[in-house]
Specification:
By secondary structure, this protein is mainly alpha-helical. The chain has one domain (7-457): Serine Threonine Protein Phosphatase 5, Tetratricopeptide repeat (Alpha Horseshoe), CATH 1.25.40. The chain is built from 16 helices and 6 strands. Strands 1-2 form a two-stranded antiparallel sheet. Helix 8 (209-222) runs antiparallel to helix 9 and helix 11 (343-356) runs antiparallel to helix 12. It is globular.
Length: 467
């Protein structure tokens, strides 16, 4: 079956959900069942529909997002998620490569669920405060999906209403990036104004006002709207850096005070476990580039969990152990959550923003907070240009294999220069990683191709330049 944006028309309420420890707000139900829009009629059904919206994010972050964030960058190699990713690693893909459609389809499926909640939920007779919170949660999920899509593909169809006939989807072409960002900002601003600052008990893990505000700051930063970004980031309060870097990722310390938002998985229910950790194990497909091991100084407390090595492989195989669940019963049944936003990200974004606003001296404090936790000496007396490289490197070390690196390089307009230098350094001989001929990243590769099936099924959808 060919999938396309028509997911928005045919996927109303896919009630696949997650359960388990600290996940009580999400109820288990049939993941294959599709409901009509008539399902949302009271507080209970609206709550279940919001639960389903959370669950639609599971396939997005279960290896696919990480492939874009790290394999496409200079952090990891072809083998994360399997050898097929060599196309992404060496930029030899084309518009027919299936992973592009996988990401596109899963994102629009999630958007469809959010659209249904927002449209139908507004008329449900129930407590107004709770209804407002439910709608705000759905707006955050929709905004997060569009933020991912617009960074990966550029102009994308912007659909904010439920579509009940797949033919209706064919009236949507690609919406300009600026307009997509306008909708993202609107959703996040409205969500932040309504959502609570925190949850306890059964609701732990839901979207908070801090999550909406932190994501808004990242959206503004990506647009290079530094003043707006700083305002948003300064409003992210109530979080702190954990003293022990390793404990951030522990399955016994989930939703700790550094984590702002995470997509939650459970090993206790078959089909709802996380799989991305399996691709970080020493005997898996995941291989970090050897150059990654030279980033960390001997005193950096992040090093051991960020870059380990397996001497049993020749050449030495480097891997990341952040998301390896020691209690996983199989590669696809792990407890690890995918951390979308954490407080260290807020601090390093704030440092980047202050530097771009010519406030480099002030920018030292947030970056040095992150460095202090890592056991490193503080930075001092840097030029604006030197500070840009310093925060880029700090982000790379802090978020190794957390799906951030590619988006950082593109956001700062450094992707082409960094990637081509990376290719050149790892090519030139038969024993080099890329062989004798270095791959080339073209300027047009900062956006990935729109899945070919979209162009086949909808004449209004066009392809990105270079593909």
């Amino acid at each position: 079956m060919k999938y396309s944006i028509k997911y928005i028309a045919i996927c109303s309420l896919a009630m696949s959900t997650i359960v388990g420890c600290k996940r009580d707000f999400i109820e288990l139900s049939d993941p294959n069942r599709i409901y009509s829009d008539n399902y949302i009629k009271d507080a209970t059904s609206l709550g279940s529909s919001v639960t389903a919206a959370y669950s639609t994010m599971l396939p997005i972050y279960n290896t696919t997002f990480q492939a874009f964030g790290d394999v496409a960058s200079d952090n990891s190699t072809t083998q994360i998620g399997g050898p097929a990713y060599n196309l992404l690693d060496a930029f030899t893909f084309d518009q027919t490569w299936g992973t592009f459609a996988t990401m596109w389809n899963a994102s629009y499926k999630s958007i469809a669920q959010s659209n249904l909640v927002i449209a139908k939920g507004a008329a449900v007779p129930m407590d107004e405060t709770l209804r407002g919170r439910y709608l705000a949660e759905a707006k955050f999920i929709r905004a997060l999906n569009y933020f991912n899509l617009v960074r990966l593909y550029g102009d994308v169809p912007l659909v904010t209403v439920p579509l009940y006939d797949y033919k209706d989807s064919y009236s949507y072409g690609r919406t300009p990036v600026a307009d997509v960002y306008t909708q993202i900002v609107k959703d996040l601003t409205e969500a932040a104004a309504v959502l609570p600052a925190s949850y306890t008990g059964a609701d732990l893990g839901r979207v908070t006002s801090g999550a909406a505000t932190a994501l808004l700051g990242k959206v503004y930063l990506t647009q290079k709207k530094y003043t707006e970004a700083l305002t948003a980031l300064n409003n992210v309060t109530g979080y702190s850096l954990l003293s022990d870097f390793n404990s951030i990722f522990s399955t016994t310390n989930e939703m700790n005070n550094e984590i702002i938002f995470a997509v939650r998985y459970s090993r206790t229910v078959t089909g709802l476990g996380s799989t991305f950790g399996a691709y970080m194990a020493s005997n898996s497909y995941n291989t970090e580039m050897p150059e990654v091991s030279t980033l960390y100084s001997s005193g950096d407390k992040r090093a051991a969990i960020s870059v380990a090595y397996n001497a049993g492989y020749k050449p030495t195989k480097y891997y990341c152990s952040k998301f390896i669940d020691p209690l996983a019963t199989s590669p696809g049944i792990a407890e690890n959550d995918w951390i979308v936003l954490r407080y260290a990200d807020v601090l390093l974004m704030k440092a980047e923003v202050l530097n771009e606003l010519n406030r480099t001296v002030e920018a030292l404090d947030p970056i040095n907070q992150v460095r202090a936790r890592a056991g490193l000496l503080p930075l001092a007396s840097l030029t604006q240009s030197d500070f840009r490289l310093a925060v880029e490197t700090e982000r790379r070390m802090e978020f190794m294999l957390e799906g951030q690196r590619w988006f950082d390089l593109v956001r700062t307009d450094r992707a082409v220069a960094v990637m081509n230098a990376h290719f050149a350094a790892n090519s030139g001989s038969t024993s080099a990683y890329y062989g004798t001929t270095a791959p080339v990243m073209k300027p047009t590769n900062v956006l990935f191709p729109v899945p070919f099936v979209e162009i086949q099924t909808n004449s209004k959808i066009t392809q990105n330049p270079g593909y």
